[in-house]
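tl;dr need the bound structure. longer version: we got a ligand (manganese (II) ion) that a collaborator sent over and nobodys looked at where it sits. i said id run it. heres the input, straight from their email, havent touched it
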Amino acid sequence: MTPSQLRRARAALDTFVVETPSWGFADTGTRFGKFFQDAAAIDLGDKLADAGHVHALTGCCPTVAVHVLWDFKPGEDPKAVARLARKHGVKIGAINPNLFQDQCYKYGSFGNNDAAVRAHAVQHCVDSVAIGRAVGSRYLSLWFADGTNYPGQGSIRERKRAFEDSLRQLHRKLALNQTMLVEYKPFEPAFYATDIADWGMAYLLAKKAGPRAKVLVDTGHHYAAQNIEQIVAWLLDEDMLGGFHFNDRRYADDDLTLGSIDPYQVFRIFHEIHLFANERGRRPDIAYMIDQCHNEKPKIEATIQTVVMAQELYAKAALVDHDALRRAQAKNDVVTAELLLKNAFFTDVSSALAAWRKANGLAADPLAEHRRQGYERKAAADRRRRRKELGIARGGSFA
Ligand code: LRH
Ligand code: MN
């Protein structure tokens, strides 16, 4: 790396933070079974401790996204949760309501044709907004499992209008510093029509909801052939890109660790963001978040891998020479334009990462440091003991 490349990579690392998901530290599974890890988090306290540990090692994930019904016990004081987070050196990040597990949501939440169910769903989101205010979180992150499985099953326009109405109601409840993120997903669990199936539907619903509603791009929520960075470039140009859920996939919403299958994909997304910042002379205000579940990999190791990979790809993408790119594009010099991205992608930025970590008092290799500290072994022993004391049974079949 040239001295100016080193400077650009380090400047990019100074600004890059990514949010970890509380659910990434807990036992999760597949449609066919749940797999247990002794070191998996038992409760929110464990999740915040693990997130704090990852932040202490990597220096770039100061906030933790929470899923309300997975993380908050009924009536739990959000302020106490914020204090607990602070004790572990992190802050509560995006608030994710759970609009997919209550029995009443069988035919949908905001899209349900039963007004009482819609009201129940909106009320849960209003409660989630209040939690956000109490813990000082900027983001209300909305994902809806809503949709139908058979042609004719539901009125597509009625469901669309029900969403417009419910999202507008909810937007009115936001604090001035809060942003509502609308996440789209083409399918699963609905397999005929998902109510918010693509970026256009999310864009339209967010626009109609109000000025503090933006679109959330989950990298796993696209058909394999879709050009995600083109969607990102458009949403940026419309100032409608609110955030990301990063993960990787080989087939569908596989929720694998970022960069494990196609690191160039995330590089191309980061490139579009750096290029946009260069054009506009300011960095866009985007919530970078991880949304993964770790069934085989040790959960904390998988999270550290993800954070370090995100840093590396963000730093590489900052190396693209935007002026040279514009010159090549103006001349339709396709090869030069492509090579400007490829060369940046293949540039080894490990010296920039090492320098940045040293300057921030961090170990050169966060994963090795995690293993050296024996955090996982200690957590496993502690949580095995506590599960016994709490009489937490594990097992039981899916069906
Ligand atoms: C849905 C989704 C959504 C979350 C969930 C954990 O697939 O991406 O963002 O609520 O995963
Ligand atoms: Mn997601």
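gonna send this back to them w/ a short note. The mean pLDDT is 97.
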